Amino acid sequence: MSDVTLLGPAEIRALAERAGVRPTKTLGQNFVLDAGTVRKIVRQADVVAGERVVEVGPGLGSLTLGLLEADVDVVAVEIDPVLAALLPQTVAAHVPGLAVDPHAGTENTDARTVVLRDTAGRARLTVVTQDALTVTALPGPPPTALVANLPYNVSVPVLLTFLERFDTLERGLVMVQAEVADRLAAPPGSRTYGVPSAKVAWYASARRTATVGRAVFWPAPHVDSALVRLDRRAHPAAGVPRQEVFAVVDAAFAQRRKMLRSALAGLAGSSAAAEDAVRAAGLDPQVRGEQVDVVGFARIAEALHAARPGTPGPGTVAP
Q: Is residue 4 part of a domain?
């Protein structure tokens, strides 16, 4: 949509001043000032016209407008009620033909929802005022992509929450701190491989696509940022629930320098039981968690499950 105008630095600061908004470290707020960066995010997300995209932490609306410019429909989840109330006004002023639907209700009774429609009745923007970590349902059609400048203080929990709760998400493009991006995309055996790497790998393949400098944000953060692309894939075949696999991941990295037979002793009940489970999974019990991929963690979880007294053998379970 060429008639959409994006926000510039002066307008972003003016919007914030008029609304009495001051970016807070508590909410991890760093607003993107640069339209070129916004368009890069949208471009790398590979969104297509008519697609429904969920955005977490829209803030003052820089990325929201970039997504609307690409002719996608946006459901924006914003924890800050002041910013959530401001966003529909900003979008209506920058996207011709949109107006608030006075009759729009909400399918999510825990949150306030505002819907902006075009003249044909298409819901172009849905603003949900809610903490992203508590969202269990979104109004309207299910989203197929997550595109967001994630709040830095909760970026990993939010990403994992949305991958878990919304299995219609086929892909994502998120901006996070550069070191977090490295962890999300790290392969087994690398220095940055850890809990986020293994858990994200359960849902999707992840790769870092670009570095974003500090100067494009207001306020400028103390660290660089990066874009991470995620593409949904089938989770590893496992005869145990995902929670059991993630419990193994957590235990393996709680003391990452320990060998698995020691790191998993508490979870297994003893070092001997942990060693048996690791061997049953086809791994060396002297290996460390940083060398094991998510498939290996799933096999260990299955072995631990099968070894519990009175526990039926693992079967096919939902992810």
A: no
* Model confidence pLDDT, tens digit, residues 79-99: 999 999 999 999 999 999 999
Same domain, 95 and 207: yes
Q: Is residue 317 part of a domain?
A: no
CATH of the domain at 70: 3.40.50.150
Do the annotations mark residue 57 as ligand-binding? yes
- Please tell me the total count of domains within the chain: 2
pLDDT in tens, 281-304: 999 999 999 999 999 999 999 999
How many CA atoms within 13 Å lie on the side-chain side of 182? Answer: 9
Q: Is 108 annotated as a binding residue?
A: no
Residue 250 in marked binding region: no
Burial class (CB in 10 A: 0-12, 13-18, 19+), 269: middle
Instruction: Tally the C-alpha atoms within 13 A of residue 7's C-alpha that lie toward its C-beta.
Output: 31
What are 178's two structure tokens? 């550069």
Do 178 and 148 lie in a common domain? yes
The answer on whether 66 is annotated among ligand-binding residues is no
The whole-model pTM stands at 0.91
Angle between helix 9-19 and 81-94 (nearest 10): 130
User: Predicted confidence band at 30 (pLDDT cuts at 50, 70, 90)?
Assistant: confident
